[in-house]
Design goal:
The structure holds two protein chains of two kinds. Chain A is mainly alpha-helical. Chain A contains 21 helices and two strands. Chain A has a two-stranded antiparallel sheet with strand order 1-2. In chain A, strand 1 (about 65-70) and strand 2 form a beta hairpin. By secondary structure, chain B is mostly helical. The chains are: A mainly alpha, B mainly alpha. The interface of A and B includes residues 139, 154 and 161 of A.
Chain lengths: ~525, ~550
């Protein structure tokens, strides 16, 4: 129907167009505006699925769609394109925004402003996934920040001001670090572009990094640290995660769904798309630390989740734990000390694929969990885990759906959470047996906090908390959202090739080029490897 | 030896061509005369003076625009490079700033028409001062001689003092003006002393000749311990003190928050942008005046560059940290302008460091291009974003009679256009894409980053710039928080604005901020071109 070029641009900008037209809508026509926004997100989702249909993963390379000069004197291009990695995330984004819009029906305050910001947010996220120019990537990255501040700050819970500023501050700090890394690469690439001006082209930069002799080891290490912190804040991994529980708890339900489902993936995507390809030496240099951070995130997040009494906070910490698998899977890059070649590259590839799958799976299960919290919170207006109980009898269908979604988060075989965790933990074994065992114990802790939460909320004799009279069965809109979440939980769990078909080849390509990049980079003399023996 | 006759001929010739190119300033001077006549003659009492002022400003803008257009078109480059036998420089750089200032004059006058801050009776006086200060800034931007440097600075300062104290009835206003005068006079005295030292040492006031003369008198290989070298450094520092005062650079910033708080928001907006633009143009010229073959002179300029970098970092940090505790909007924005002066100073510092580094050569010219480009871009965006912020403060003040941040609570729903404009300005001031402030900051950071390869201190400057960006978020976001997150208290005065003409003006000022962020190519290229002509076209 459309060429990929048109499709990708439409996916990015259809939400903005819908947002712009919303400005002219009458403030009182609330229902119309909601339907309008729903249509906008539905169209975007449909377009992203259509784009998925046109994607032919021949060699796993990037299908570059558009490269238009933007600021020529700075070599900045409007350059977008995609491969299996970004495309699956684009489809996930379209899906999560669509169901979050359905979940936004309950928003009554300043509906117009909410919807406009919601749509602009979608443009920002889509843009990040498509951008192949570092500058453009950065612009979309920050564009995403602006609506998010207001969405949490205006429509959030009681401590929303604090949560919103904290979120903004953390992300901005990460962004500034990324900016400096961007300048470093721009400056360092100046002698290779031919015209003396550096390059922002991510593909070109990655190609040079793979050649090994363009970016010095020192630059790669410094650049990697800056980029990694920038993205780790977004993931979020252990020392940088403290904004997440606050932001999640205070944000309204649909925004929590987006935050967990999509925004966290941007961090992982950034690591895969930018931090690793641009600094293979730096990434390998830090690999043991990265794996350790990943493992600590898994275990720490799980313990923190166990300790929560707030239902939503528990789900938020479960995100920290689950995203730890993503970092762990990416980072298990073990090298042969003598040759510098990756040792057991297939295991590493498996870890990478597992991380990718985990991102998609978490993108389905985590919004699902937040949605479940939202459904009950809308009715009884509290989230205290110790005051629930007995909901299975009062809301059987809701409880059934919630059980499936929580089991998907737990990683029950046959549901989506399983594949990613297994892949990652298996690949970690090749890297370090100790860390693999620790990370595997995270699975048990996960089972612990999820089952315990299920028990406290849904099982038990009767509901004794406040507002028992408000507990009513799910309405049809809520049921639709529930089903929409449950279907992919099963589909991905039973047939993971829905994702792997698209991501396998790009991942293999990435692993190959990283391996080459590390081997080609001249090692500083007398360098002591931090990798384990 | 020239005989008197040929000298006179030369003078007449130079004056003839110069006057033709000096028309914008002359038009503005003529406008002042007409305005003063309006004040005196009862016949013209009825003429609305703002239209006269606006007409003058438009003429000056149009004229400078066409001059700029001719200058940057490569084929038709005018041959005349100096006016009035070398007192003023007439090149792309100065013409850009003259255009910039007259555009700003138009916007400020328009704003005062909308807010009605000078009442009918005072209007001629006010516009006289406003235009007079603008002429002074234009001279600052094109000064090519130490004498004109001083005249420019003083012509800018004296009307500024009066404008700050223009709201005669308010104690605060008079106090602010007094403070401003005292500081200003002190700084001007120091600067004048520095100028006289420099002129005495070199025997010339002409900036282009200065480097040459300096390299002749600098003691070879003696370094800073030589008395002559020390005097040069001292004199340069004294001149820089005068400029630092105009730029409100730490530690010469004390006047700025008081003056801005005391003055009307319109005046504060004008001073914050225009006098900075003039002073930065002058600073760049003064810094480049050290260009020459001599290694010793270069090393002095290099040291000055490093010093400016440290000052810039300190200024940005100080401004941002002080702004955090403010509750008055004008005071908050005053500290924010101090911080922004710090960022811009970083680019001048990078310029000097790159250009006067030991390995300076043709490459240094190319490397330092982006510094001037970044500075010009920053100033251009700053014009819109800072004026926008002050204009909105003024417009809101007219309705709620308050400039306290707490009184802004919940305005977001009452005057969406003003608050939307404020949002754009604030995000741009923070430096977030897709606003223009981001690209400007990006360009400046890039030039500082380039300079890090020359000297390690520039790493600290860059780090300070980066950290400050995060710091500044704290207080800027308070404005948005008040407007959007906090509820409007019951019984608070209502703010109502029609879309015309106030909303239109706000959009006119704020949308360019967005535009400059989304489509920077055109301007970036022009500034790049201007910078390359400035650095290499001598």
């Amino acid at each position: 129907m459309f060429s990929p070029e048109v499709l990708s641009n439409l996916i990015i900008f259809v939400p903005t167009i819908f947002a712009f037209l919303l400005i002219f809508a009458d403030k009182t026509a609330v229902e119309f505006m909601r339907v309008w926004t729903l249509v906008g997100t539905a169209i975007t989702f449909a377009l992203s699925v259509a784009l998925l249909g046109t994607y032919a993963p021949a060699d796993g390379g990037i299908q570059q769609v558009v490269a238009k000069e933007w600021i020529s004197s700075w070599n900045i291009y409007y350059r977008i394109g995609y491969d299996g990695i970004s495309l699956t995330l684009v489809v996930l984004t379209g899906f999560v925004f669509l169901i979050s819009m359905l979940a936004s029906w309950g928003i009554e305050k300043h509906v117009k402003g909410y919807l406009i910001l919601f749509l602009i947010l979608e443009t920002g996220v889509m843009g990040v996934f498509f951008a192949l120019d570092f500058f453009l990537f950065y612009v979309f990255w920050e564009v995403m920040l602006l609506p998010m501040y207001f969405l949490i700050g205006i429509w959030g819970g009681p401590r929303r001001e604090y949560a919103a500023i904290k979120f903004f501050l953390y992300t901005l700090a990460g962004g500034v670090l990324m900016l400096i890394a961007m300048l470093m690469y721009f400056f360092a690439s100046a002698s290779h572009t031919g015209n003396g001006v550096g390059s922002f082209n991510l593909l070109e930069l990655a190609k040079w990094a793979a050649q090994g002799n363009v970016f010095s080891p020192g630059l790669q290490v410094a650049g990697f640290i800056l980029l990694f912190i920038g993205f780790a804040i977004k993931v979020p991994t252990f020392p940088f995660h403290t904004w997440l529980p606050d932001a999640h708890v205070e944000a309204p339900t649909p925004i929590s769904m987006i935050l967990a489902g999509v925004l966290l993936k941007l961090g992982g995507y950034g690591i895969i798309r930018i931090a690793y390809p641009l600094c293979p030496y730096g990434a390998q240099y830090a690999s043991y630390a990265l794996v350790a951070i990943g493992v600590v995130s898994i275990v720490y997040g799980a313990f923190a989740a166990l300790a929560q009494t707030d239902f939503k906070r528990m789900v938020a910490y479960s995100s920290v734990s689950h995203m730890g698998y993503v970092l762990l899977g990416i980072a298990v890059w073990k090298i042969n000390e003598v040759t510098g070649a990756a040792e057991g590259a297939n295991y590493w590839l498996m870890g990478m694929s597992g991380a990718m799958f985990q991102m998609i799976a978490h993108g389905v299960s985590s919004p699902g969990m937040f949605f479940c919290v939202g459904v009950i919170y809308d009715r009884v207006h509290h989230r205290d885990l110790n005051q629930f109980g007995g909901l299975a009898g009062l809301m059987p269908r809701y409880s059934g759906m919630a059980a499936v979604i929580f089991f998907a988060g737990l990683g029950l075989p046959g549901l989506c959470g399983f594949i990613g965790e297994v892949f990652v933990v298996l690949s970690a074994w090749n890297f370090s047996k100790t860390l693999a065992i620790v990370s595997a114990s995270g699975v048990i802790l996960t089972a612990g906090y999820i089952l315990w939460a299920l028990q406290r909320v849904y099982l038990g004799p009767a509901y004794k908390g406040p507002h028992p009279e408000a507990i009513t069965p799910m309405n049809s809109r809520e049921q639709a959202i529930g089903w929409a979440l449950i279907v992919p939980c099963f589909a991905l769990g039973v047939y993971p090739n829905f994702v792997f078909d698209y991501t396998d080849k790009p991942m293999a390509k990435l692993v190959r080029s990283l391996d080459e990049g590390y081997q080609n980079t001249p090692k500083p003399h007398g360098d002591v490897q931090t990798t384990q023996k | 030896m020239h005989d008197i006759g040929s000298l006179v001929d030369q003078l007449v010739e130079s004056t003839k061509t110069s006057v033709g190119l000096f028309v914008p300033e002359l038009v503005l001077s003529g406008t002042i005369v007409v305005l003063l006549l309006c004040r005196i003659l009862p016949l013209v009492w009825r003429v609305p003076t703002q239209w006269i002022a606006l007409l003058g400003a438009f003429t000056a803008f149009g004229w400078t625009l066409s001059q700029f257009d001719q200058l940057v078109t490569p084929s038709e480059a005018l041959q005349v490079k100096t006016l009035f036998t070398g007192l003023l420089k007439f090149d792309e750089f100065s013409t850009f700033f003259r255009m910039f200032l007259s555009l700003f004059l138009i916007l400020t006058i328009t704003l005062t028409v909308l807010t009605g801050i000078p009442d009918r009776e005072d209007a001629p006086d006010f516009y006289t001062l406003l235009i007079g200060a603008t002429i002074g800034m234009m001279i600052m931007a094109s000064a090519n001689h130490l004498l004109m440097v001083f005249i420019g600075v003083e012509m800018t300062s004296v009307p500024s003092y009066a404008m700050v104290g223009f709201m005669k009835g308010r104690r605060q206003s008079s106090e602010a003006a007094l403070k401003y005068v005292v500081y200003g006079a002190g700084a001007a005295g120091v600067m004048l002393y520095g100028i006289s030292l420099l002129a005495g040492l070199t025997g010339t006031g002409s900036l282009p000749e200065m480097a040459e003369r300096l390299s002749m008198i600098v003691a070879q290989g003696q370094g800073i311990s030589d008395p002559t070298n020390r005097t040069i450094v001292l004199a340069s520092l004294m001149v820089l003190v005068g400029l630092a005062f105009k730029l409100s650079v730490f530690p010469f910033h004390f006047w700025c928050p008081d003056a801005f708080e005391g003055a009307a928001a319109e005046v504060a907006g004008f001073l914050s942008v225009a006098s900075k633009a003039g002073a930065f143009a002058l600073l760049v010229r003064f810094g480049l005046a050290f260009s020459g073959q001599s290694k010793e002179v270069s090393s002095i300029a290099f040291a000055l560059g490093i010093g400016l970098g440290v000052l810039g970092a300190a200024t940005a940090t100080f401004g941002n940290l002080s702004a955090y505790g403010q509750s008055n909007m004008k005071r908050l924005l005053a500290y924010s302008t101090i911080a922004h002066a710090g960022y811009m100073l970083m680019s001048v510092s990078a310029l000097l460091v790159l250009r006067f580094s030991k390995q300076a050569g043709a490459e240094a010219d190319v490397a330092s291009l982006s510094c001037i480009e970044g500075l010009m871009y920053y100033l251009f965006v700053y014009l819109f974003m800072n004026l926008g912020a002050f204009a909105i403060v003024a417009l809101i003040r007219n309705q709620i009679f308050s400039e306290e941040l707490d009184d802004y609570n919940g305005l977001g729903t009452q005057c969406p256009v003003l608050c939307f404009g404020m949002t754009i300005c604030v995000f741009s001031l923070i430096g977030l894409p897709p606003m223009g402030g981001f690209f400007a900051k990006f360009a400046i950071f890039y030039s500082v980053f380039k300079a890090t390869s020359v000297h390690w201190v520039m790493w600290l400057v860059l780090a300070a710039g980066a950290i400050n960006t995060v710091f500044s978020l704290f207080y800027y976001i308070r404005i948005l928080k008040a407007m959007y997150v906090k509820p409007r208290p019951d019984g608070a005065r209502k703010v109502t604005y029609d879309l015309m003409p106030v909303g239109l003006f706000v959009l006119m000022v704020c949308l360019p901020v967005l535009g400059l962020g989304l489509f920077p190519a055109r301007f970036s290229e022009t500034f790049h071109h201007v910078a390359s002509l400035l650095l290499t076209g001598r």
